[in-house]
Amino acid sequence: MPNEMILQKQKQAAEILQEKNIDMWMTYVRETGNIKDPMMDMIVGTGATWSSAFIITKDGDTTAIIGSLEEANMKTVGTFKNIVPYLKSIKEDLIAAIKKHDPNKIAINFSRNSTLADGLTHGLFLELSDYLKDTPYAERLVSSEEIVAAVRGRKSPAELELMKTAIVETLKIFDEVTEFIEVGKTEKEVAEFVRGLVKERGFGFAWDEEHCPAVFTGPDTAGAHSGPTDKAIQKGHVINMDFGINYKGYCSDLQRTWYVLRDGETEAPNEVQRGFQVIVDSIQMAKDAIKPGKLGWEIDAVARNFIVEKGYEEYPHGLGHQVGRKAHDGGALLGPRWERYGNAPYIPLEVGNVFTIEPRLTIEGFGIATIEEKIVVTENGCEWLSPIQTKIILLKG
Amino acid sequence: MPNEMILQKQKQAAEILQEKNIDMWMTYVRETGNIKDPMMDMIVGTGATWSSAFIITKDGDTTAIIGSLEEANMKTVGTFKNIVPYLKSIKEDLIAAIKKHDPNKIAINFSRNSTLADGLTHGLFLELSDYLKDTPYAERLVSSEEIVAAVRGRKSPAELELMKTAIVETLKIFDEVTEFIEVGKTEKEVAEFVRGLVKERGFGFAWDEEHCPAVFTGPDTAGAHSGPTDKAIQKGHVINMDFGINYKGYCSDLQRTWYVLRDGETEAPNEVQRGFQVIVDSIQMAKDAIKPGKLGWEIDAVARNFIVEKGYEEYPHGLGHQVGRKAHDGGALLGPRWERYGNAPYIPLEVGNVFTIEPRLTIEGFGIATIEEKIVVTENGCEWLSPIQTKIILLKG
Q1: How many angstroms from the chain centroid is the CA of residue B146?
Q2: How far is CA B261 from the centre of its chain?
Q3: Where would you tag: which of A3, A5, A221, B152 has the fewest CB atoms within 10 A of its CB?
C-alpha cells in the first residue's frame, strides 16, 4: 500500500474517532511475521517484532512505540509522526504516550463480531491490561469494532479505482477460462490454468491459493469452500467458478456460470435456464433493495425468500460480504440472522461500502448456478462495480 | 505441509498432552484468511471461515467442528478423524464434543510469552468463554504454551531434513551474492538480485519480503530489521546480509559478513579482523555451552559477556531464536532477561530444538560484523546445522 493511502486512511480514522467520540485508537501487536493484526497493512504499512503500539488520536496525532531495532525502519516507512523506540520494555513509554492524551476511551482491536477488528490476541490483551492496571486507562479500553468497520468499509475514490481494476483483470481471466474449458478437462486443470495466468501477470490471490479459484463442474460437486477435484467436465454440466485476485493490495471476488451443450442442443435445457434466471433476478432484486441505512439481513431476505418461493432450497451462507484489502472485509454483512454471523447482519449499510451479491441454487442433475457481482453503496442506492452476467455462458460439448 | 507430516505432528501432540497431563488441546479459529493462528499449518493443513474448533486429545483422537460449507474440503484434506459440520452455530456441537471427553484441562492458544501459542484472538476468547459459561469447562481453559513450545520445538527427522535443505539452498544464494557484489552497487540492488533468485527457484521468503534479505553496507547503517537503502557499497566497507528462504514450509535464517578491500590491501585491517574474530569466537563459545536443560539466558550471557569484555557494546537483541515453520519459532529463546522477552529466556532447551546464534558488533568506521549460524540441540550438547563462517569474505575493491 503506498504511504499516501495509509496517511489518508489515518486521517479518515481520526475523523471517525471524532464522529464516534473516542479519543484514541491503539493497534497493539508483536511478531507480525507469525500472526498479523489485519489493520497493520492499512494503517501502519510495515511489521513489528516486539510488543508495539500504533496510536491514532482523534486530533490526528500518530505515535508508534516500537522496539529500538525497528526505529530506523519505521522512519524509512514514514507513516507515523512520533516514533518512540524502547529497549527493554514498552511499559513506561506506553503509559507516558497514553497519559499525554488522557483519552476518554481507548479503542483496541478486539471484537466478537468482526474478525477484522479482532487482531489483538488474548495473550497480548492480558499483557496490555497488566501494563495499564495501575492507571485509569485499563478501564477505558473499548472495542474498535465500529472504527474498523468504518475505516475499512468507507472506500475512498482511490480504493474504488484499484478495486475496479482488479475486477477488470479478473473478468479477463474468466473470458480466457471460457476459451480454455472443454469436455474431459478436470476442475484441477481449469484451476491450474487460472493460477498460471495470475502468476504470469504478477497478481496475488484474493484468498488461499488452494481454493482460488474454486471450480465446480456438474451435479454433486463438493460445494463451496472446497478445492478443485479430479472430476472431469462433461456434456450437460453446469460449471461455476469462484475466483478473485489481489491487485496492489485490493481484492476482487467474482463468480460466473457456464453450461456445456449436449449433442443436438443449441441452448441450455429449460430447468437450467430457469434456475440461472432465478439467480439473475434475485441479484437484481437485492441490488434494488440496497441503500444506506438498510440492514444486511433485510437485503439477504429479499434474495433468499425469492429463491425459496421459486421452489429451490435456500443457500447455506450469506448473500454477500464486503470486499476490500481482504476478500471478506468490513463490518456489515448481507447475511441472515444466524448466530454464526454475530451482529454483522444488523449493521446499517454506509455510503462507500463494497458488497458482493452471490446467491446460489442447485439445478438437480446439472450442477450449481451461482453468480457473484459487486456493488458500491451510494447516497441513494447502489451501483454495479462489475459488469454483470445476465446469460449463462454456453460451451460447445 | 504434506498430510503425513501433519498426522505425525498430531501424534506427537498427543504424546506431549500425556506428558503434561492435559486431556485436550483445542485450536479455535475463524476467517483464517484474515488472521491465522500460527498452529493451523502445522496441525490442520487448511483454513476455516466460520468459528471452528480443531481438537486433539491425549489419546490421539482428533475432531474438527466446522461450518457445513467446509465439510467437503475438510474430508479432502483428510487430517481429522471426526468431522462435525454445523450450519447456524458451533455452540451445541462444541459442547457435545468436549463433554464426550470430559477433559481435566483444555489447552487453548493464548500466551503472554509465546506469540506462536497466542493465535486465539481476544474476541474469540470471549466467544468461547461465553459458549462454555454454563458448563464446568470454562474454568478448565489453560494456556497451550507448553504444548506449542514442545510440538514446534522438538523437530522430527523429517523436519530437520527440510531445514537442512533450506540452509544449503540459502548458502548457494550467499555464494552468488559474493560474486554479485561490487563497489557502487546499492543495498537495494543486492536485495533485488537475491529476491530474483528466490523467485526464480520457486522458494518463499522466510520473513516479510520487504526486509528479506536485509543488506547493510558500511558504517552508520540503518540497523537490523530495516529494509535495504540506496546506500552504495564502497571500498573499506564491512557488508552483512540477513536472509532466509521458506523451503516446503520450513525456514532458514542466516547471516554472513564481507569486507571490500581498499587500494593496496590484501586483507582486512586489524580492527575489522579483530571484531570479526570476536563474533566467530563468541558463537563457538555459545555453541559449546548449549545442552538440554540449559536456560536460554545462560547461553546468551556467554556470548554477550565475552563481547563486552572485549570492549564492544552489547548487541541490543537476543543471541538466538528457534527456527522452524516460522523464522522466529518455538518457545525457548537464547535471550537476555529483559521484560520484552517474557519467560522465553527461562525455558529449558530440549533435544530437537533448532536455534540461531547471531551476535553482532559494530566496527567503528567500517560497519557491522555479524554472523548467524544454526544448531540443533542433541542428547549431550548440540550440532551445527549449517556450515559455519570462520573467515570474513574478502572482496576486491
Answers
A1: 16
A2: 35
A3: A3
Is A152 within 8 Å of chain B by CB? no
Question: Domain ranges in chain B?
Answer: 3-152, 154-395
Q: How far does chain A reach from its first CA to its final CA, in angstroms?
A: 44
Rounded to an integer, what distance in angstroms lies between the CA atom of residue B383 and that of residue B376? Answer: 5
Q: What's the pTM?
A: 0.87
Say what the pLDDT of residue B355 is. 98
B111 contacts on A by Cβ (under 8 Å): 123
Please, are residues A212 and A243 in contact by the beta-carbon 8 Å criterion?
yes
Q: Which CATH number fits domain A3-152: 3.30.70.3270, 3.30.530.20, 3.60.20.10, 3.40.350.10?
A: 3.40.350.10
Nearest to A227 among B73, B123, B328 (CB): B73
The CA–CA distances, whole Å, from A348 to A149, A343, B332 equal 11, 11, 47
Q: Is it the case that residue B1 has pLDDT exceeding 60?
A: no
C-alpha cell at A5: 493511502
Strand ranges in chain A using DSSP code E only, listed in sequence order: 24-29, 52-57, 62-67, 82-86, 106-108, 141-143, 204-205, 214-217, 238-243, 245-247, 250-251, 254-260, 320-322, 329-334, 354-357, 360-363, 367-370, 373-377, 382-384, 393-395
CA distance B278 to A217: 64
Euclidean distance between CA atoms B80 and B74, whole angstroms: 8
Name the residue among A242, A258, A277, A257 with its Cα closest to residue A356: A242
ipTM comes to 0.86
Three-state secondary structure string covering chain B:
CCHHHHHHHHHHHHHHHHHHCCCEEEEEECCCCCCCCCCHHHHCCCCCCCCEEEEEECCCCEEEEEEHHHHHHHHHHCCCCEEEEECCCCHHHHHHHHHHHCCCCEEECCCCCCHHHCCCEHHHHHHHHHHCCCCHHHHHEEECHHHHHHHHHCCCHHHHHHHHHHHHHHHHHHHHHHHHCCCCCEHHHHHHHHHHHHHHCCCEECCCHHHCCEEEECCCCCCCCCCCCCCECCCCCEEEEEECEEECCEECCEEEEEEECCCCCCCCCHHHHHHHHHHHHHHHHHHHHCCCCCEHHHHHHHHHHHHHHCCCCCCCCCCEEECCCCCCEEEEEECCCCHHHCCHHHCECCCCCEEEECCEEEECCCEEEECEEEEEECCCCEEECCCCCCCCEEECC
State the Cα–Cα distance between residues A377 and A288, nearest whole angstrom: 11
- Quick check: B12 and B156 in contact, CB under 8 A? yes
Q: Which three cell numbers stand for residue A344?
A: 454483522
Binary contact (B73, A316; C-beta < 8 A)? no
Q: Which residue of chain B comes nearest to A222, CA vs CA? A: B72
A91: which chain B residues are within 8 Å (Cβ-Cβ)? 339
Question: With a cut of 50, which residues of chain A have pLDDT below it?
Answer: none
For the domain spanning A154-395, the CATH number is 3.90.230.10
pLDDT at position A3, please?
Answer: 82
The pLDDT assigned to B2 comes to 62
Nearest CA to B34 out of A143, A52, A117 is that of A117
Helix (H, G, I), strand (E, B) or coil at A247: strand
Relative to beta strand A382-384, strand A373-377 is antiparallel
Contacts of A338 in chain B (CB under 8 A): 87-89
pLDDT given for residue A350 in this prediction: 96
CB contact under 8 A, B118 and A36: no
